[in-house]
Design a protein that fits this description.
With 68 residues, the chain is mainly alpha-helical. The termini are far apart. The model has no long low-confidence stretch (mean pLDDT 90). The chain contains three helices and two strands; from the N terminus they run H-H-E-E-H. Helices cover 41% and strands 6% of the residues.
């Protein structure tokens, strides 16, 4: 684990520009890397989030961005 402090749901919401509810939704769908400390307590590693975001990036030359 990194030396950086773990982030809260509110920290992640601010970092991603999402609502807290949206972050909880991503957690419930298991679409975001999370550390579950207990059934109701979750935290996030900043590096894991950065890697997750980088993995979601769509290159500019991909099919998604091409206009026909």
């Amino acid at each position: 684990m990194s030396a950086d402090p773990l982030l809260t749901v509110h920290d992640v919401a601010d970092l991603l520009g999402l609502s807290v509810g949206s972050v909880y939704h991503l957690i419930s769908q298991k679409r975001i890397p999370v550390i579950r400390l207990s059934a109701r307590c979750v935290r996030f590693e900043k590096k894991a989030l950065e890697d997750w975001i980088a993995g979601m990036a769509i290159p500019p030359d991909s099919e998604v961005h091409r206009h026909v």
